[in-house]
Amino acid sequence: MSFDLSVIPNKNIVLAVTGGIAAYKSAILVRRLKDAGFNVRVVMTQGAQAFITPLTFQALSGNPVHTELLNPEAEAGMGHIELARWADLLLVAPASCDTLAKFATGLADDLLSTLYLATKSPVWVAPAMNQQMWAAKATQRNLNTLVEDGVHVIMPDAGSQACGDVGLGRMPEPEDLAYQVTQYFHRAQRAIAEKFGLLAGKHVVITAGPTREAIDPVRYISNHSTGKMGFALAAACYAAGAKVTLIAGPVSLDTPNGVRRLNVSSAVQMLDLSMQMLDEGCDIFIATAAVADYRVAEVAEHKIKKAGDELNVSLIKNPDIVATIAGQQKRPFMVGFAAETRNVEEYAAGKLVAKKLDMIACNDVSRADIGFASDENAMTVFFADAYQLEKRDLEKASKQEIAQQLVEAIHDALWHEIEPV
Ligand code: C5P
Known about the structure:
By secondary structure, the chain is an alpha/beta fold. The protein is about 35% helix and about 25% strand. It folds into two domains: about 10-160 and about 165-185, Flavin prenyltransferase-like (Rossmann fold); about 200-415, Rossmann fold, CATH 3.40.50.10300. It has helices at about 25-35, 45-50, 55-60, 70-80, 80-85, 95-105, 110-120, 130-135, 135-150, 175-195, 230-240, 265-280, 320-325, 345-355, 400-415; strands at about 10-15, 40-45, 90-95, 125, 150-155, 155-160, 165-170, 205-210, 215, 220, 245-250, 260-265, 285, 295, 315, 335-340, 360-365, 375-385, 390-400. An eight-stranded mixed beta sheet has the order 12-11-8-13-16-17-18-19, with helices on both faces. Helix 14 links the parallel strand 16 (about 335-340) and strand 17. Helix 1 packs parallel to helix 3 (about 55-60), helix 6 packs across helix 9 (about 135-150) and helix 11 (about 230-240) packs across helix 15. The radius of gyration is 26 Å and the shape is elongated. The structure holds cytidine-5'-monophosphate (C5P). Cytidine-5'-monophosphate binds near residues 291, 320 and 337.
């Protein structure tokens, strides 16, 4: 079973590994959680370190591993209270009998048991042990206590065990655990969306309008984009509960209510600001801008004077903004647009893959009734394969209505239930 979605921006998982042979599976679990877009920090008990080294988890998680409670050096990095606050989920996998017993009785004599008491985040445990230890009355009693205390217990699988026994006690496969965690956050997000808006709490960055590429201090190269689609999207995202930053090229449109607008002129400026938004924390990036493909190689310092019958201006390629952002390691959910005059769907599907987008909305700009300067639009939306979603045809409608449907498409792609394959 596998799934491959990097669509959970900014969720933090503390993975606690305790002593048991299944600890080796937790190394793969870290990878799967990272693949799914989570930030992961690993806590190891002493028992866990007898099975696998902290260095392995440090390399896989990209973060220092936490092993001790009152080590001044470690506490100076990220202390146990800070770690407890950082977690959006505390996942204990594998969870040993000993850990379950500590949790059930409220002992706090090592880092993990202290974290358990100190965190407000949900706690999941994936017990893994010998089948007889699993069946032991004390273990079952402790598990009942934990369930009563609100801990989510991931049931062990049955099968052959490392010790030679056969029965219940195997830790589920890392892919399965990562899948369950991902779906949990998707469900939580859907509940938030139902209550507070489809994109509640997300930071959406939108590029809009044309770019202007200077030839000299008074002339430039540009295009006919009016920015209407991007501005309509900004308004729709804000209405859906998002924080919205609109990076606008030169257009004569009013800033939608509640939207932060940053004006730029050239493609290079648009890229610079877009990259800054990544540092600020961006969950969804929507590129509607009609970025000039080329800019003037050497912008003249002074106005170019009329002379001769020909004037040659040398152009160089502009950076591809959306592809650059999509190529970053910590990337938001990426939405692109494609305006084509022929083979519309084929070209759009190609761009989806080439620019590493999650979703692309394409339209046929050869039709006079939609597109560029028009107030109406009609689009087809494609999703990257991993989302397991069919393409969507958005019938001709006002750009406001199309924007609303695009917001719904983004929401559906981000948080729908995905079948493991
Ligand atoms: O390659 P093409 O210009 O057709 O791709 C369109 C998509 O790529 C749009 O989403 C547009 O905003 C984005 N784009 C970009 N930077 C460029 C060119 C296009 O972000 N230099």
